[in-house]
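thread: overnight batch results

M.L. [08:02]
morning all. the overnight job finished for the chain we discussed friday. pasting input first so we're all looking at the same thing
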Amino acid sequence: MVTRNFLLIAMILNLLHPVFVIGQDNGKAAARIESAIQTLSKAIENVQQIDEYSGMLVYREHSQDGVLLEPNFWKLKVRSNSTQIYCRNLKPWRGTEVLFQKGKHDDKILVNCGEVYGCCIRLTRMDPTNAKSLCNLRYSFPEKNIYGLSKHYLAYMKKIKNRMAGKVRILNNCKINKRSCSKLEIRLNANTKLQFSKLEIYIDQEYQIPVRFVGYGWQKSDTQKPPLIEEYTFVNLNISPAFTDHEFVETFASRTLRRQALDQTKGEHHFFALWQWTTVMNEFVTRLGLPCPH
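M.L. [08:03]
and the structure it wrote out:
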């Protein structure tokens, strides 16, 4: 009787959240992965229709050296299909700012690395690709937004479709920060030799845009759970807040002016602040992954 009840429950769950195996001679499985790709593609179109948004990005990721970095919390302002991005770190390096404006500053990112003893540190600029390589980041800062991450995950899903080896589930009524979401979950077979063993993409049911991306690596044995490789979650989203140009870069500009004022001063306080800056930068670059100003 117990076994029969267990089988009945398993059948019901499978009907609610069916699993389709890619790679079997199963037309439904092929349709399922194509449906997941189309769902994400439509969500990307919805993102492109948003003029601007603000919110918070919370992420963890392995560096290119294989070290899982501590959680990062960034306040975001994004405009014009991610051609203008401003982000400010809340934790662990409170006050650090990054600004990207496509077509300006030779398409480089501008970085204010916070303050030391009340003094704003020198502004630096760097090519996003070089910053990514130097700091062992998985993605450059202009890519760490909803549109950029969606494009990366869509490309990976198309690779999975071409290999035709994995399992696909589409789940409804999931919750991210108390908001209802749909979840696309794709598990890969071990013989695929791709980077991830499992992908998860959460799509907000009201906004119909992706709000969470998770990628898992390969476990060393069947008894272990897949290790987390990266996760990016967007919370407290405000769609179309109507930024003014001044508001978009207000904090960043004020810090730059403070830096210029500091450059015009001389004395022990200026020297002491710069000395303190030198002593903390090595740890800063290692833990946060931002370019060191020169």
